[in-house]
Write a structure and sequence with these properties.
Layout (H helix, E strand, L loop, with lengths): L7 H5 L7 H30 L8 H15 L2 H10 L6 H34 L1 H6 L2 H18 L2 H6 L21 H33 L8 H21 L1 H14 L6 H19 L1 H12 L1 H29 L1
């Protein structure tokens, strides 16, 4: 969670200045915004309009792109706040943008896991792939949105402490509401298990199983196996780069904020590392489109085909225009 509020550990350890985080957040979000908006908009358009073959985890890719776009569209407000240090809008908009950050993170984790799992299972059990219906993926996606959307509600609720309607603070300057240990321990445990440990195990198993399948007969379909392996490897790379640092640091960060950890070196390193973890998590908005383009042959084929047709139509219009002039 983004926070600039002070706990006993922060006060005792003299951790008062975290001003570097404002420039860090602003720079990261500026870098991500335009490429992320263009890449995910193009990906969503191509995936929805030009891919009629709705297998190979295409439905999950569409939902992953929607999750990334939801976060990307909130970045201009984040950039404005971290540059101006002032929030002129309503509290509800601040909390909505804050909520979208974590909705994007955990929805992305779930959809990356689904992509890896489906590609691996369909590769190892092709007969199951033939009988698989598109509505199954739609149902799974809907369930993910409901579960993740509900599970992420505590993030803005816990951070809205002391935030009035006319407050000019948001994001990193939101308050932190301390929790009872009876609530804290189960919440952190569930968040870490469901949002990190279980997906890590699933993605690692899928990567291992898919790698092993390349060395097993029959050798027919080796090209399809390699495509599936690249897809699973890319999912693993995005997961480990973007989400592993945050979830490793999250446990320590919570314990520092709850004054469970009082060691100054641990508290200091945890709080300083936290903004970098959140910036890495936002990078998924740039890395996910690479997953679509380089790992899904249908995406590449349809994108290049459409680009060629657009180029041809423009050339033809120019030629017809020049012939009329001539």
């Amino acid at each position: 969670m983004e926070s600039n509020s002070t706990s006993n550990a922060e006060t005792n350890c003299n951790i008062s200045s975290m001003s570097f985080q404002y420039s860090l957040y602003a720079t990261t979000y500026i870098i991500i915004f335009i490429p992320g908006l263009l890449a995910n908009s193009a990906a969503l358009w191509v995936l929805c309009r030009f891919i009629s073959k709705k297998n190979k985890a295409i439905i999950f890719m569409i939902n992953l792109s929607v999750a990334d776009l939801a976060h990307v569209l909130s970045l201009p407000l984040r950039i404005y706040y971290y540059i101006s240090h002032h929030w002129p809008f309503q509290r509800a908009l601040c909390l909505l943008c804050f909520y979208l950050k974590y909705l994007n993170m955990y929805a992305s984790i779930c959809f990356l896991t689904c992509i890896s799992l489906q590609r691996c299972l369909f590769l190892l059990k092709p007969f199951r792939a033939r009988n698989w219906k598109r509505r199954y993926d739609v149902g799974i996606s809907a369930a993910i949105w409901v579960i993740v959307g509900t599970a992420c509600l505590p993030f803005p609720i816990l951070r809205s402490a002391g935030l009035g309607n006319n407050s000019d603070s948001c994001f990193a300057d939101l308050g932190y509401k301390k929790m009872n240990a009876v609530v804290l321990v189960p919440m952190v445990t569930i968040a870490e298990l469901a949002g990190f440990v279980v997906p890590v195990i699933i993605i690692a198993c899928c990567t291992w199983k898919t790698t092993i399948s390349l060395s097993q007969p029959p050798m027919a379909g080796i090209s399809e196996r390699r495509k599936a392996l690249r897809m699973v490897f890319m999912c693993a790379a995005v997961f480990f780069i973007c989400f592993t640092p945050y979830h490793i640091n999250f446990v320590f960060y919570t314990m520092v904020k709850e004054t469970i950890i009082s060691s100054c070196p641990i508290a200091q390193s945890t709080l300083y590392f936290h903004p970098f973890c959140l910036c890495l998590a936002s990078l998924c908005c740039l890395l996910d489109p690479i997953l679509y383009y380089f790992m899904a042959s249908e995406f590449r084929d349809q994108l290049s085909r459409h680009s060629s047709s657009v180029t041809r139509s423009r050339l033809m219009s120019k030629e017809s225009g020049s012939s009329m002039v001539g």
